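Entry
Fold in token form

___
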Amino acid sequence: MSTFNELNLSPEILKSLAGLGYEKMTDVQSRVIPEILKGNDVMVQSKTGSGKTAAFGTAISEQIDWEENRPQALILTPTRELAIQIQEEMMNIGRFKRLKAVAVYGKSPFKEQAQQLKQKTHVVVGTPGRVLDHLERGTLNLQRVKYVVLDEADEMLSMGFIETIEMILKMTSLNRQTLFFSATLPARIEKLSQQYLKNPSMITIESESIVNESIEHALYQVRVPEKVRVLKDVLTIENPTQCMIFCATRDEVDALYQGLKAQGYPVLKLHGGMEQKERLETMRQFKMGRFPYLIATDVAARGIDVSQMSHVFNFDLPEDGEAFVHRVGRVGRAGEKGKAVTFVTPFEARKLEEIQTYIGFELPVKERPVKIEVEQSRERFESQLKRRPQQKQTKQADVHREIMKLYLNGGKKKKLRTVDFVGTILSIDGICKEDIGIIEIKDQVTYIDILNGKGFDVLDGLKTRTIKGKKLKVQRAYQV
């Protein structure tokens, strides 16, 4: 099978996939989705950028029962950024089935997450520590969970989450379907799979190299005092349309960010020391293409999917070969071409040797750019820097075309419930329950997705109606 249409999926899921631009399946999708639909546990080894989120997302969304109010799927992931990204993907795939996914993670208000979990929730995506926290405080119920996914299992092992994951798995039903996804298979992950997976289908997406073959590599040998100058020279010659620059520590990210920003580079930064709201806004701006440069620590290397990113720069070498693979895996995704540029100092010779042993090849050494090359490239480089960035269309743009999100200035504090909104909307001529999508009721406001191009009909209809005897302000909600 090569296309999603061959999978006998529901029209709602196929409609979402088409809107997301998913037509032909990747290798991992064509092999994994049928196994999940058969009800099998799976253990998948696949390199980053292979499309595994859409693989388990499609199969799980297809099988979820909308009528059930409690979570039916739990997806565990190592980082906050990846949890949010997977939640968005699940919401996009399940949009026309009206599926609700909630992300839970640390350094974000627990109370707000608990309030979301009180409402109808089909999928919970979270980091292990915060998921366990919700379980212990009784704000997350796993009694109806049929599917448990461990995404980036090897990374969760390296981050010390395995004991927490085992505690969570023991709180789920023995009849669950368990899905492990990992770029590498350390012995501890294999042991975990033997303990918690039942006769799993073992799926390995073969690759001649552990590193994506569509990535071009370049290695520059530099001394520490000249690293920034060489980086600027290489940036001028390479002229990336969009890139990530990886540093080893938060302090180095801050220093390089301040230096480049002061010289007029349109740059953002991302590291674990930033407030969660700031990190999310940074990733939103970068994904939308509003800034071409993002300087980051390895916190951003796992799972961040930014379309059409041209370059990755290893300003500092990562700690090991696995981290190198995940850094450079930010480019060359879904068949695109990309380039990874790595800097190495004389003090990092042994670390470079270990990385090259791990990836199975030597990085090609390049001569540092000479002054005349840099000057010849400068006009083109500076012209691109001054050019107003073309805003990228987000993945969900096509999915949202037939959906209008409405904002109403009333919620829980006014004792409004889902049934109150649904009853009023169904009183509007030409509207049926299939036209009502996800309803998110907060303390003071409510957001409602209206499907099938019926948004303006509902918007006009609600302006002349009361909800539970209350006249509410209703308007179109802003969507990125």
